User: Which sequence fits this backbone?
Protein backbone atom coordinates (compact mmCIF):
# COMPACT_ATOMS: atom_id res chain seq x y z
CA UNK A 1 0.00 0.00 0.00
CA UNK A 2 1.46 3.41 -0.89
CA UNK A 3 2.45 5.71 1.93
CA UNK A 4 0.48 8.84 2.69
CA UNK A 5 3.31 10.03 4.93
CA UNK A 6 6.93 9.12 5.46
CA UNK A 7 8.94 10.61 8.29
CA UNK A 8 12.65 10.00 8.41
CA UNK A 9 15.04 10.88 11.24
CA UNK A 10 12.91 13.81 12.41
CA UNK A 11 14.30 15.94 15.25
CA UNK A 12 12.84 19.05 16.82
CA UNK A 13 14.36 21.31 19.41
CA UNK A 14 13.46 24.66 20.90
CA UNK A 15 16.69 26.47 21.61
CA UNK A 16 18.77 24.08 23.69
CA UNK A 17 15.92 21.78 24.60
CA UNK A 18 15.37 18.69 22.49
CA UNK A 19 11.72 17.78 22.15
CA UNK A 20 12.48 14.54 20.36
CA UNK A 21 15.19 13.14 18.10
CA UNK A 22 15.53 10.70 15.24
CA UNK A 23 11.87 9.91 14.77
CA UNK A 24 11.20 7.51 11.88
CA UNK A 25 7.79 6.15 10.90
CA UNK A 26 5.41 5.92 7.98
CA UNK A 27 1.65 5.86 7.53
CA UNK A 28 0.08 3.85 4.70
CA UNK A 29 -2.86 5.38 2.84
CA UNK A 30 -6.21 4.66 4.44
CA UNK A 31 -4.75 3.42 7.74
CA UNK A 32 -4.75 4.90 11.25
CA UNK A 33 -1.76 5.90 13.30
CA UNK A 34 -2.27 6.57 17.00
CA UNK A 35 0.28 8.72 18.78
CA UNK A 36 0.57 8.26 22.52
CA UNK A 37 2.95 9.34 25.23
CA UNK A 38 3.10 11.26 28.49
CA UNK A 39 2.21 14.94 28.61
CA UNK A 40 4.94 17.20 27.29
CA UNK A 41 6.55 14.55 25.11
CA UNK A 42 5.93 16.56 21.96
CA UNK A 43 2.84 15.01 20.38
CA UNK A 44 1.28 18.35 19.43
CA UNK A 45 4.71 19.64 18.40
CA UNK A 46 4.98 16.68 16.02
CA UNK A 47 1.64 17.63 14.43
CA UNK A 48 2.77 21.22 14.04
CA UNK A 49 5.92 20.05 12.30
CA UNK A 50 3.88 17.77 10.03
CA UNK A 51 1.89 20.75 8.73
CA UNK A 52 5.02 22.90 8.45
CA UNK A 53 4.19 25.28 11.28
CA UNK A 54 7.54 24.91 13.03
CA UNK A 55 11.04 24.20 11.80
CA UNK A 56 12.65 20.76 12.14
CA UNK A 57 15.57 18.64 11.04
CA UNK A 58 15.08 15.45 9.06
CA UNK A 59 12.56 14.60 6.38
CA UNK A 60 8.76 14.82 6.27
CA UNK A 61 7.33 13.56 3.01
CA UNK A 62 3.60 13.71 2.32
CA UNK A 63 2.29 11.85 -0.74
CA UNK A 64 1.69 14.23 -3.67
CA UNK A 65 -1.73 15.86 -3.65
CA UNK A 66 -2.46 15.13 0.02
CA UNK A 67 -4.97 17.50 1.60
CA UNK A 68 -4.90 17.71 5.37
CA UNK A 69 -7.81 18.32 7.72
CA UNK A 70 -6.50 19.45 11.11
CA UNK A 71 -8.38 19.19 14.40
CA UNK A 72 -6.45 21.31 16.90
CA UNK A 73 -6.47 20.51 20.59
CA UNK A 74 -7.81 23.93 21.34
CA UNK A 75 -8.32 27.18 19.52
CA UNK A 76 -6.03 30.14 20.05
CA UNK A 77 -8.87 32.53 20.82
CA UNK A 78 -11.05 33.57 23.71
CA UNK A 79 -14.32 31.73 23.64
CA UNK A 80 -16.38 34.92 24.02
CA UNK A 81 -15.80 36.17 20.50
CA UNK A 82 -18.80 36.84 18.27
CA UNK A 83 -17.84 34.05 15.88
CA UNK A 84 -20.31 31.30 15.05
CA UNK A 85 -19.59 27.77 13.94
CA UNK A 86 -20.92 28.76 10.55
CA UNK A 87 -18.42 31.62 10.35
CA UNK A 88 -15.58 29.16 10.93
CA UNK A 89 -16.80 26.58 8.44
CA UNK A 90 -17.53 29.18 5.78
CA UNK A 91 -14.09 30.70 6.32
CA UNK A 92 -12.48 27.29 5.76
CA UNK A 93 -14.81 26.58 2.82
CA UNK A 94 -14.01 29.89 1.13
CA UNK A 95 -10.28 29.64 1.56
CA UNK A 96 -10.19 26.04 0.30
CA UNK A 97 -12.78 26.82 -2.42
CA UNK A 98 -15.12 24.15 -1.08
CA UNK A 99 -18.06 26.09 0.32
CA UNK A 100 -20.39 23.32 -0.77
CA UNK A 101 -18.72 21.03 1.79
CA UNK A 102 -20.08 23.06 4.71
CA UNK A 103 -23.62 21.68 4.79
CA UNK A 104 -22.45 18.09 4.44
CA UNK A 105 -19.86 18.51 7.17
CA UNK A 106 -22.43 19.96 9.56
CA UNK A 107 -24.91 17.16 8.85
CA UNK A 108 -22.21 14.57 9.32
CA UNK A 109 -21.25 15.77 12.79
CA UNK A 110 -24.90 16.38 13.73
CA UNK A 111 -24.69 20.14 14.27
CA UNK A 112 -27.23 22.30 12.55
CA UNK A 113 -28.84 25.11 14.50
CA UNK A 114 -26.01 24.98 17.06
CA UNK A 115 -23.65 26.16 14.32
CA UNK A 116 -25.49 29.48 14.15
CA UNK A 117 -24.65 30.30 17.76
CA UNK A 118 -21.39 31.88 18.95
CA UNK A 119 -18.80 29.17 19.59
CA UNK A 120 -18.55 30.22 23.25
CA UNK A 121 -21.98 28.81 24.13
CA UNK A 122 -21.37 25.36 22.66
CA UNK A 123 -20.88 22.39 24.99
CA UNK A 124 -17.51 20.62 25.00
CA UNK A 125 -18.85 17.84 22.78
CA UNK A 126 -20.52 20.21 20.32
CA UNK A 127 -17.36 22.27 20.10
CA UNK A 128 -15.18 19.26 19.31
CA UNK A 129 -17.65 18.10 16.68
CA UNK A 130 -17.50 21.58 15.17
CA UNK A 131 -13.69 21.29 14.95
CA UNK A 132 -14.06 17.93 13.22
CA UNK A 133 -16.56 19.47 10.79
CA UNK A 134 -14.11 22.29 10.09
CA UNK A 135 -11.42 19.70 9.31
CA UNK A 136 -13.78 17.89 6.92
CA UNK A 137 -14.42 21.04 4.85
CA UNK A 138 -12.01 21.19 1.91
CA UNK A 139 -12.06 17.47 0.91
CA UNK A 140 -9.20 16.24 3.09
CA UNK A 141 -7.48 12.95 2.31
CA UNK A 142 -5.73 12.92 5.69
CA UNK A 143 -7.08 13.86 9.13
CA UNK A 144 -4.82 15.01 11.95
CA UNK A 145 -6.72 14.85 15.25
CA UNK A 146 -5.12 16.26 18.40
CA UNK A 147 -6.99 14.68 21.33
CA UNK A 148 -10.40 15.23 19.79
CA UNK A 149 -12.20 13.78 22.81
CA UNK A 150 -10.49 15.90 25.49
CA UNK A 151 -13.05 17.59 27.70
CA UNK A 152 -15.95 15.54 26.32
CA UNK A 153 -18.14 13.28 28.44
CA UNK A 154 -17.99 9.54 27.85
CA UNK A 155 -21.05 9.10 25.59
CA UNK A 156 -19.80 12.10 23.61
CA UNK A 157 -16.37 10.53 23.26
CA UNK A 158 -17.90 7.36 21.91
CA UNK A 159 -19.89 9.40 19.40
CA UNK A 160 -16.82 11.30 18.23
CA UNK A 161 -14.75 8.15 17.82
CA UNK A 162 -17.54 6.51 15.83
CA UNK A 163 -17.88 9.63 13.71
CA UNK A 164 -14.21 9.71 12.78
CA UNK A 165 -14.23 5.97 12.17
CA UNK A 166 -17.23 6.21 9.84
CA UNK A 167 -15.85 9.12 7.80
CA UNK A 168 -12.54 7.36 7.49
CA UNK A 169 -14.21 4.22 6.15
CA UNK A 170 -16.50 6.01 3.73
CA UNK A 171 -13.88 8.30 2.27
CA UNK A 172 -10.82 6.10 2.64
CA UNK A 173 -9.06 8.70 4.77
CA UNK A 174 -5.71 8.34 6.43
CA UNK A 175 -5.99 9.23 10.13
CA UNK A 176 -3.33 10.40 12.56
CA UNK A 177 -4.71 10.59 16.08
CA UNK A 178 -3.18 11.83 19.31
CA UNK A 179 -4.96 10.04 22.13
CA UNK A 180 -4.71 9.15 25.79
CA UNK A 181 -7.41 6.52 25.48
CA UNK A 182 -5.62 3.20 25.12
CA UNK A 183 -8.82 1.27 24.42
CA UNK A 184 -9.39 3.48 21.37
CA UNK A 185 -5.81 2.88 20.31
CA UNK A 186 -6.26 -0.88 20.56
CA UNK A 187 -9.52 -0.88 18.68
CA UNK A 188 -8.85 1.55 15.86
CA UNK A 189 -5.17 2.07 15.26
CA UNK A 190 -3.30 0.19 12.56
CA UNK A 191 -0.02 1.32 14.10
CA UNK A 192 1.05 3.14 17.23
CA UNK A 193 3.79 5.68 17.74
CA UNK A 194 4.84 6.01 21.38
CA UNK A 195 6.79 9.12 22.17
CA UNK A 196 8.94 10.00 25.14
CA UNK A 197 11.67 12.57 25.35
CA UNK A 198 14.32 9.86 25.29
CA UNK A 199 13.11 7.54 22.58
CA UNK A 200 10.20 6.33 20.52
CA UNK A 201 8.50 3.07 19.55
CA UNK A 202 6.59 2.38 16.36
CA UNK A 203 4.58 -0.70 15.40
CA UNK A 204 1.27 -2.52 15.62
CA UNK A 205 -0.54 -1.97 18.96
CA UNK A 206 -0.43 -5.60 20.09
CA UNK A 207 3.26 -5.88 19.40
CA UNK A 208 4.50 -2.83 21.18
CA UNK A 209 1.95 -1.90 23.85
CA UNK A 210 3.39 -4.29 26.37
CA UNK A 211 2.82 -3.79 30.10
CA UNK A 212 6.51 -2.94 30.47
CA UNK A 213 6.34 -0.20 27.85
CA UNK A 214 3.15 1.24 29.31
CA UNK A 215 4.82 1.32 32.69
CA UNK A 216 7.76 3.15 31.17
CA UNK A 217 5.52 5.57 29.30
CA UNK A 218 3.24 6.55 32.11
CA UNK A 219 5.44 5.78 35.08
CA UNK A 220 2.80 3.67 36.82
CA UNK A 221 0.99 0.44 36.05
CA UNK A 222 -1.75 1.35 33.60
CA UNK A 223 -5.04 -0.42 33.65
CA UNK A 224 -7.36 0.17 30.81
CA UNK A 225 -10.88 -0.99 30.34
CA UNK A 226 -12.42 -1.70 26.97
CA UNK A 227 -15.57 0.34 26.41
CA UNK A 228 -18.63 -1.34 24.95
CA UNK A 229 -18.76 -4.78 23.44
CA UNK B 1 -18.91 70.46 -2.51
CA UNK B 2 -16.05 72.23 -0.78
CA UNK B 3 -13.04 71.00 1.09
CA UNK B 4 -15.09 71.03 4.33
CA UNK B 5 -17.48 68.41 2.99
CA UNK B 6 -14.56 66.50 1.55
CA UNK B 7 -12.89 66.47 4.95
CA UNK B 8 -16.01 65.16 6.69
CA UNK B 9 -16.47 62.50 3.99
CA UNK B 10 -12.85 61.49 4.47
CA UNK B 11 -13.21 61.23 8.23
CA UNK B 12 -16.22 58.94 7.69
CA UNK B 13 -14.19 56.80 5.25
CA UNK B 14 -11.42 56.68 7.86
CA UNK B 15 -13.94 55.61 10.50
CA UNK B 16 -15.14 52.74 8.30
CA UNK B 17 -11.56 51.57 7.75
CA UNK B 18 -10.72 51.90 11.46
CA UNK B 19 -13.82 49.97 12.54
CA UNK B 20 -13.09 47.08 10.19
CA UNK B 21 -9.36 46.70 10.84
CA UNK B 22 -10.05 47.12 14.57
CA UNK B 23 -12.30 44.06 14.72
CA UNK B 24 -9.38 41.77 13.99
CA UNK B 25 -7.09 43.76 16.29
CA UNK B 26 -9.51 43.23 19.18
CA UNK B 27 -10.02 39.55 18.35
CA UNK B 28 -6.27 39.02 18.11
CA UNK B 29 -5.91 40.61 21.54
CA UNK B 30 -3.61 43.27 20.18
CA UNK B 31 -5.35 46.32 21.59
CA UNK B 32 -2.08 47.37 23.20
CA UNK B 33 -0.22 46.72 19.95
CA UNK B 34 -2.57 49.14 18.26
CA UNK B 35 -1.39 51.91 20.54
CA UNK B 36 2.25 51.01 20.11
CA UNK B 37 2.06 50.91 16.35
CA UNK B 38 0.38 54.30 16.23
CA UNK B 39 3.16 55.76 18.37
CA UNK B 40 5.75 54.56 15.91
CA UNK B 41 4.50 57.37 13.66
CA UNK B 42 5.78 59.99 16.10
CA UNK B 43 9.52 59.93 15.31
CA UNK B 44 8.59 59.91 11.62
CA UNK B 45 6.61 63.11 12.03
CA UNK B 46 9.54 64.67 13.90
CA UNK B 47 12.03 63.73 11.17
CA UNK B 48 9.69 64.98 8.45
CA UNK B 49 9.24 68.34 10.18
CA UNK B 50 13.01 68.67 10.60
CA UNK B 51 13.56 67.86 6.91
CA UNK B 52 10.64 70.08 5.87
CA UNK B 53 8.82 67.30 4.04
CA UNK B 54 5.15 66.38 4.50
CA UNK B 55 4.65 64.97 8.03
CA UNK B 56 2.42 62.22 6.66
CA UNK B 57 5.25 60.98 4.45
CA UNK B 58 7.54 60.73 7.46
CA UNK B 59 4.86 59.08 9.57
CA UNK B 60 3.96 56.68 6.78
CA UNK B 61 7.55 55.58 6.21
CA UNK B 62 8.15 55.15 9.93
CA UNK B 63 4.92 53.18 10.36
CA UNK B 64 5.86 50.89 7.50
CA UNK B 65 9.30 50.08 8.89
CA UNK B 66 8.19 50.01 12.52
CA UNK B 67 5.54 47.47 11.66
CA UNK B 68 8.06 45.41 9.72
CA UNK B 69 10.31 45.48 12.79
CA UNK B 70 7.54 44.33 15.14
CA UNK B 71 6.61 41.55 12.71
CA UNK B 72 10.21 40.39 12.28
CA UNK B 73 10.92 40.42 16.02
CA UNK B 74 7.70 38.53 16.64
CA UNK B 75 8.29 35.82 14.05
CA UNK B 76 12.07 35.43 14.40
CA UNK B 77 12.57 35.62 18.15
CA UNK B 78 10.72 34.00 20.98
CA UNK B 79 10.27 37.24 22.90
CA UNK B 80 6.66 37.79 23.94
CA UNK B 81 4.79 40.21 21.69
CA UNK B 82 3.85 42.26 24.74
CA UNK B 83 7.50 42.85 25.55
CA UNK B 84 8.36 43.83 21.98
CA UNK B 85 5.41 46.20 21.86
CA UNK B 86 6.32 47.74 25.20
CA UNK B 87 9.89 48.41 24.07
CA UNK B 88 8.97 49.77 20.63
CA UNK B 89 6.16 51.87 22.11
CA UNK B 90 8.31 53.62 24.69
CA UNK B 91 11.30 54.04 22.38
CA UNK B 92 9.13 55.61 19.68
CA UNK B 93 7.55 58.00 22.16
CA UNK B 94 10.94 59.00 23.56
CA UNK B 95 12.62 59.54 20.19
CA UNK B 96 9.55 61.27 18.82
CA UNK B 97 9.23 63.74 21.66
CA UNK B 98 12.93 64.62 21.40
CA UNK B 99 12.52 65.47 17.76
CA UNK B 100 9.51 67.73 17.86
CA UNK B 101 8.68 70.95 19.67
CA UNK B 102 5.91 71.17 22.26
CA UNK B 103 3.19 72.46 19.99
CA UNK B 104 4.03 70.10 17.14
CA UNK B 105 4.04 67.25 19.61
CA UNK B 106 0.57 68.07 20.90
CA UNK B 107 -0.68 68.28 17.32
CA UNK B 108 0.94 64.96 16.41
CA UNK B 109 -0.53 63.29 19.48
CA UNK B 110 -4.05 64.69 19.37
CA UNK B 111 -4.55 65.79 15.77
CA UNK B 112 -4.46 69.17 14.16
CA UNK B 113 -7.02 71.69 13.09
CA UNK B 114 -5.38 72.81 9.83
CA UNK B 115 -7.23 72.56 6.53
CA UNK B 116 -6.67 69.44 4.43
CA UNK B 117 -5.26 69.80 0.95
CA UNK B 118 -6.80 68.11 -2.10
CA UNK B 119 -3.80 65.81 -2.24
CA UNK B 120 -4.31 64.70 1.35
CA UNK B 121 -7.96 64.02 0.72
CA UNK B 122 -7.24 61.93 -2.37
CA UNK B 123 -4.54 59.95 -0.55
CA UNK B 124 -6.94 59.45 2.34
CA UNK B 125 -9.74 58.01 0.21
CA UNK B 126 -7.36 55.66 -1.60
CA UNK B 127 -5.86 54.42 1.68
CA UNK B 128 -9.29 53.96 3.29
CA UNK B 129 -10.49 52.01 0.26
CA UNK B 130 -7.35 49.87 0.48
CA UNK B 131 -7.96 49.01 4.15
CA UNK B 132 -11.64 48.20 3.59
CA UNK B 133 -10.84 46.08 0.55
CA UNK B 134 -8.17 44.13 2.43
CA UNK B 135 -10.36 43.32 5.43
CA UNK B 136 -13.40 42.30 3.39
CA UNK B 137 -11.36 40.28 0.91
CA UNK B 138 -9.21 38.52 3.51
CA UNK B 139 -11.71 38.15 6.36
CA UNK B 140 -11.93 34.37 5.96
CA UNK B 141 -8.18 33.86 5.90
CA UNK B 142 -7.80 36.23 8.86
CA UNK B 143 -10.36 34.26 10.86
CA UNK B 144 -8.63 30.95 10.17
CA UNK B 145 -5.21 32.32 11.18
CA UNK B 146 -6.82 33.78 14.27
CA UNK B 147 -8.42 30.54 15.46
CA UNK B 148 -5.56 28.22 14.54
CA UNK B 149 -2.42 28.85 12.50
CA UNK B 150 -2.23 25.09 11.86
CA UNK B 151 -5.73 24.92 10.39
CA UNK B 152 -4.87 27.99 8.31
CA UNK B 153 -1.74 26.34 6.96
CA UNK B 154 -3.60 23.19 5.99
CA UNK B 155 -6.03 25.43 4.08
CA UNK B 156 -3.08 26.71 2.07
CA UNK B 157 -2.63 30.11 3.73
CA UNK B 158 0.84 31.63 4.05
CA UNK B 159 0.44 32.58 7.70
CA UNK B 160 3.55 34.74 8.12
CA UNK B 161 2.79 36.72 4.97
CA UNK B 162 -0.83 37.29 5.94
CA UNK B 163 0.24 38.50 9.39
CA UNK B 164 2.62 40.99 7.82
CA UNK B 165 -0.05 42.18 5.38
CA UNK B 166 -2.46 42.61 8.26
CA UNK B 167 0.01 44.65 10.33
CA UNK B 168 0.90 46.87 7.36
CA UNK B 169 -2.77 47.45 6.59
CA UNK B 170 -3.21 48.30 10.24
CA UNK B 171 -0.36 50.81 9.97
CA UNK B 172 -2.00 52.29 6.89
CA UNK B 173 -5.22 52.76 8.86
CA UNK B 174 -3.24 54.52 11.59
CA UNK B 175 -1.62 56.83 9.01
CA UNK B 176 -5.10 57.69 7.75
CA UNK B 177 -6.22 59.13 11.03
CA UNK B 178 -3.04 60.96 12.02
CA UNK B 179 -4.03 64.26 10.46
CA UNK B 180 -7.30 64.82 12.30
CA UNK B 181 -7.13 62.45 15.28
CA UNK B 182 -3.42 62.31 15.95
CA UNK B 183 -1.20 59.43 17.02
CA UNK B 184 -2.79 58.84 20.42
CA UNK B 185 -6.39 59.07 19.38
CA UNK B 186 -6.21 57.07 16.15
CA UNK B 187 -5.18 54.00 18.14
CA UNK B 188 -8.37 54.46 20.18
CA UNK B 189 -10.46 54.96 17.04
CA UNK B 190 -9.36 51.55 15.84
CA UNK B 191 -9.89 49.76 19.15
CA UNK B 192 -12.94 51.31 20.85
CA UNK B 193 -15.63 50.81 18.16
CA UNK B 194 -14.43 47.24 17.61
CA UNK B 195 -14.52 46.57 21.37
CA UNK B 196 -18.09 47.91 21.44
CA UNK B 197 -19.03 45.70 18.50
CA UNK B 198 -17.53 42.63 20.15
CA UNK B 199 -19.91 43.06 23.07
CA UNK B 200 -22.99 43.56 20.92
CA UNK B 201 -22.55 41.16 18.01
CA UNK B 202 -23.38 37.48 17.74
CA UNK B 203 -21.51 36.69 14.54
CA UNK B 204 -18.53 37.86 12.53
CA UNK B 205 -20.59 39.84 10.02
CA UNK B 206 -22.48 41.41 12.93
CA UNK B 207 -19.25 42.47 14.57
CA UNK B 208 -17.89 44.07 11.39
CA UNK B 209 -21.19 45.89 10.86
CA UNK B 210 -21.52 47.16 14.44
CA UNK B 211 -17.90 48.32 14.50
CA UNK B 212 -18.41 50.35 11.31
CA UNK B 213 -21.64 51.82 12.70
CA UNK B 214 -20.07 52.74 16.03
CA UNK B 215 -17.04 54.32 14.36
CA UNK B 216 -19.05 56.33 11.82
CA UNK B 217 -21.63 57.49 14.40
CA UNK B 218 -18.85 58.57 16.78
CA UNK B 219 -17.15 60.50 14.00
CA UNK B 220 -20.28 62.30 12.81
CA UNK B 221 -21.67 63.04 16.29
CA UNK B 222 -18.23 63.97 17.60
CA UNK B 223 -17.52 66.33 14.71
CA UNK B 224 -20.82 68.19 15.18
CA UNK B 225 -20.50 68.29 18.95
CA UNK B 226 -16.99 69.74 18.57
CA UNK B 227 -18.31 72.59 16.44
CA UNK B 228 -21.27 73.24 18.74
CA UNK B 229 -19.23 73.18 21.95
CA UNK B 230 -16.09 74.81 20.47
CA UNK B 231 -13.90 71.88 21.44
CA UNK B 232 -11.15 70.11 19.44
CA UNK B 233 -12.60 67.49 17.08
CA UNK B 234 -10.38 64.47 17.74
CA UNK B 235 -10.86 64.19 21.51
CA UNK B 236 -14.60 64.79 21.07
CA UNK B 237 -14.91 61.92 18.58
CA UNK B 238 -13.07 59.54 20.88
CA UNK B 239 -15.18 60.61 23.88
CA UNK B 240 -18.34 59.78 21.94
CA UNK B 241 -16.84 56.42 20.91
CA UNK B 242 -15.98 55.69 24.55
CA UNK B 243 -19.55 56.65 25.49
CA UNK B 244 -20.91 54.04 23.09
CA UNK B 245 -18.59 51.46 24.62
CA UNK B 246 -19.90 52.25 28.12
CA UNK B 247 -23.47 51.96 26.82
CA UNK B 248 -22.66 48.53 25.38
CA UNK B 249 -21.59 47.40 28.86
CA UNK B 250 -24.93 48.43 30.34
CA UNK B 251 -26.85 46.70 27.58
CA UNK B 252 -24.91 43.53 28.24
CA UNK B 253 -25.88 43.43 31.91
CA UNK B 254 -29.55 44.20 31.30
Assistant:
Amino acid sequence: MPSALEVDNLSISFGETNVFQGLTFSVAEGTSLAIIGPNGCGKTVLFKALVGSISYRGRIQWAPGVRIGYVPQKLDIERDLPITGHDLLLAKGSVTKAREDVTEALLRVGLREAADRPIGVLSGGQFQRLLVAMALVGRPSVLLLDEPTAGVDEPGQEKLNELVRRVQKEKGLTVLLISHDLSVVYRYATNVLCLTRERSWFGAPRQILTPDLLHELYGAPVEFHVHGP
Amino acid sequence: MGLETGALALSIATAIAAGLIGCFAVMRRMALAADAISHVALPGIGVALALRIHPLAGAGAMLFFGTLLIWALESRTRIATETIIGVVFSAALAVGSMMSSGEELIEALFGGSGKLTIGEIVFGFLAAAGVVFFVLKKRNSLILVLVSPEVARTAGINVARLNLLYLETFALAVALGLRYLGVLLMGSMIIIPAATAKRLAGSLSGMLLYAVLAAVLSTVLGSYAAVLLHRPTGPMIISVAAGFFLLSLIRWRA
User: Anything to note?
Assistant: The mean pLDDT of chain A is 88.
